[in-house]
Design a protein that fits this description.
about 110 residues, mainly alpha
Length: about 110
Amino acid sequence: MEVFRAHNEKCRALSGISLAPGTVIRYETSLRLTEEFLQKNYQKEDCYLDEVTNQFIEDFEFFLKTVRRRCPLQRREGQPRAGRGALLESDARSVRYRRPHEPRAVHGQL
């Protein structure tokens, strides 16, 4: 967890410079959830990097999806969708989606 904390410290210093503040908050949440997972599943407060195996990752993913009910691939109602047909602009009256194959205007040209 020491490496994780050091990473988050660097990210905090970059908040608002090259990282969005929301990204830093997500890193902090990831640290907290990883600590919770370690304590619940392994009764440990820390682990070595070589202990982070495929099985560890699969168990952590299961923990997030079931115990914590967090699944990044499932959108909650009202969340914008990402990827194909991603939301471009929105106001109170209309929502416009752009398909990846639509040309973009560059300096007034198509």
